[in-house]
Amino acid sequence: MLNELEKVRKEMFKNNISFAPLKGGYLIDNVYKNRYIRTLNDLDILVKKDDISIIDKVFKDLGYEQGDYNFDTNSVVVPDQSKALFFKEKMYKLLPYIKINPQTPKSTVIFDLTVSLDFSLDVQPIYEMLDMALKVSNGIELLPEHFLVYMCCHHYREASNVAWILMGRDLNLIKFCDIHEYVLQKMDHHSLQRAVEFSKKYKLEKPVYYTLYFAKELYNDGYESDVLESLNITDNAFLNEYGSSANDYNKAQIRKKDFFSSIFSDNNKDEITQTPKYHKTVKENKTFNF
C-alpha cells in the first residue's frame, strides 16, 4: 500500500495537485519508522475540493475505481444515486478510490480523500493547510500544527458520530498512540500553540480539546494541560456526547459508558438506540445495520 501511495503521489505531483498523506500513510515511515509496528487499512489523503476532476482522472488512469469496497467479494460496488448524492453534498470526504488485486485481496488498495475537516464542509482550513505545507520529494507534507489539528478532527468525528460507533471504529488505542508519538517526535511548545491558534481561527477547539483531553488520560506526557487551558473551553460536557451532527440526530446523545470502558470494549454499538437520519435516506451495507 505504501509503495502504491508513492506511485500515486508522483502522478499527483506531475499534475500539480496538492496531495498530503495523513495518519498511517505518513506516520508509519516518518514517526514509527518501522513497518511492523502499525497496521494500515487504507490511505487517508488531504486534497483540495477544486482539484477533484483532475484527481479523478489521475486515479482512473492508474487503474482505480471509485465506490464502496465489498470485503466479502473483494470487489468495488458502485453506489446508487442517493448515496452518491449524499457523499457529494453532505460528506467531508469523497467516495473511496480502490484498486482490486483479484489474486490477493489483502493487497487491495483503498484511498480515502478528505476535503473538509468536519460536517460543516468548510474547505478553507484545508486550503490553508495545503497552501502552507512543506515541499518534499514528489509532494508535500503538512506543518506539524496542521497535522495535529487534522488528527484531532478525525478522531473527534469518529468518536462523536453514529456511523463509526455502529462500525466499531469510534474509539481505539492506536488513534491516541498516533497523537502521543507524533507530538513527542514532531512538535514543541511553539508548534502546539500554533495548533491552538489555528483551531481557534476555524472554530475547531472542541476536536482538539477532546483528543488531547483523553490523550492526557492515557499518557499524561506533560504538554496537554497547557494546550487544554489555552483552548479556553468552559463547558466540556461534549466529551461524553455523540450524534449532534445533522446527519445523525441534530441533538446530542450521552454515552452510557465511560471513556476507558468504551475504548477497551470490542465495540460500542450498545450505545445506539435510535436510527440516525442518514440511515433513513441512504441504503447502507450490512456494516451499518443494528
Q: Could you write a compact summary of the structure shown?
A:
The protein is an alpha+beta fold and 290 residues long. Helix content is 46%, strand content 12%.
Number of helices: 13
- Rg over C-alpha atoms, rounded to the nearest angstrom: 19 Å
Integer tally of domains: 2
| Mean pLDDT across residues | 91
Order of helices and strands: HEHEHEEEHEEHEEHHHHHHEEHH
Helical content stands at: 40-55%
Structural class: alpha+beta
Explain what the structure shows.
With 290 residues, the protein is an alpha+beta fold. It has 2 domains: 1-122, Beta Polymerase, domain 2 (2-Layer Sandwich), CATH 3.30.460; 143-290, no CATH class. The relative contact order is 0.11. The strands form 4 sheets. It has a 5-stranded mixed sheet. It has 13 helices and 11 strands. Residues 281-290 have low confidence and may be disordered. Helix 2 packs across helix 8 and helix 6 packs across helix 9 (189-201). The protein is globular, with a radius of gyration of 19 Å.
Looking at this protein, list some descriptive labels.
290 residues; alpha+beta; Beta Polymerase, domain 2; 2 domains; five-stranded mixed sheet; two-stranded antiparallel sheet; 13 helices; disordered C terminus
